[in-house]
Design goal:
alpha/beta, Rossmann fold, six-stranded parallel β-sheet
């Protein structure tokens, strides 16, 4: 489950921001839209979804026109954005935050000839489907890397909201850390936000002040890595390959590759085979999955190195 954030009503003006990557307005081109809670350049969750949108566009070319709306407030304000996308002729809409679920479900009933895809959630309808990544395996591997890197056995974790999705992530991360460092503990600080680099960095700094020597995160930005860089400690990221923000601190991270799934769903609309349902995307490696560098701590014992995570824990269909 994902995304329960309350933003100011004034943010609705920002919700109108978006873009299209294809100027083809021919009647034969399917129009597909993505609704983002953050910025497509957030280097995390939203970037991963925008990478998928670009992948769909690249694979289908002139057969599709893709559009996105970013920085859309969760809650009632999202309804107007969805209405506008339907009016613009979009036949499939991807909602990429849990906080859009009620509005997506309402739109599915209001527009029975449009297909809606929710990234996380639990509601289904004849034209509303739900999907997410079965991230626990990848989170466990990321935790193994953190456990192998810590000297003190004290690991910090910057987390957004205490909802099932995030709790599963932290549990898997902790079990992985304890597999490579028995007795390791994971201290959690809740930010109550998905994307607020300043708040995320302060949370990371508070964990460092409490004595942790490795950081993990479930946030949308790489701000935790910036705090790790300043403190010269190791860091495991989340959502996207964030190596470039703190290459000497980077260990590994759970990375989502939504492209193949979303491409398949767009194709299904095009050929009339789309069906509702709930899909948990498994951990796998496909040819299109990128691999982020993994930094091996020099102090890692030889017998634990063989149990470390692969370069990046990638989630794909």
């Amino acid at each position: 489950m994902r995304r329960l954030t309350l933003l100011a009503l004034a943010a609705i003006a920002v919700a109108a921001c978006g873009g299209s990557s294809n100027n083809n307005t021919g009647s034969t081109a399917l129009k597909a839209a993505w609704v983002y809670v953050g910025s497509s350049s957030d280097a995390g969750w939203t970037k991963a979804h925008d990478d998928a949108r670009v992948y769909v566009q690249q694979q289908l070319g002139s057969q599709v026109v893709t559009t996105f709306k970013e920085n859309v407030p969760e809650g009632p304000q999202a309804s107007q954005v969805i209405d506008d996308l339907v009016k613009d002729g979009n036949k499939i809409i991807f909602g990429t935050s849990f906080g859009f679920q009620d509005q997506m479900a309402a739109a599915a009933k209001k527009y029975p000839n449009v297909y809606f895809e929710m990234a996380t959630g639990f509601m289904l309808d004849k034209n509303l489907a739900e999907f997410f990544g079965a991230a626990e395996d990848a989170d466990y591997l990321t935790g193994m890397a953190a456990g192998a890197a810590t000297k003190s056995g004290k690991i910090g974790f910057v987390a957004p909201f205490p909802i099932p999705e995030v709790i599963r992530e932290i549990n898997a991360f902790t079990l992985g850390a304890q597999a490579t460092h028995p007795g390791a503990t994971v201290q959690v600080v809740w930010t109550t936000t998905w994307f607020d680099p300043g708040k995320e960095k302060k949370a990371a700094e508070s964990l460092i002040a409490n004595g942790v020597d490795v950081l993990g995160q479930g946030q949308d930005s790489p701000a935790t890595g910036e705090a790790a860089k300043a403190a010269k400690i190791k860091w495991a990221g989340y959502d996207s390959d964030q190596t470039s923000f703190a290459p000497d601190q980077w260990l590994t991270g759970t990375v989502y590759h939504w492209g193949p799934y979303e491409l398949g769903r767009v194709k299904a609309v095009m050929n009339g085979s789309w069906k509702s349902g709930r899909t948990a995307l498994s951990t796998s490696r496909h040819s299109e999955a990128r691999s982020a560098p993994r930094r091996r701590p020099r102090s890692t014992p030889r017998r634990t190195r063989s149990r470390r995570a692969p370069s990046t824990s990638s989630l794909d269909r």
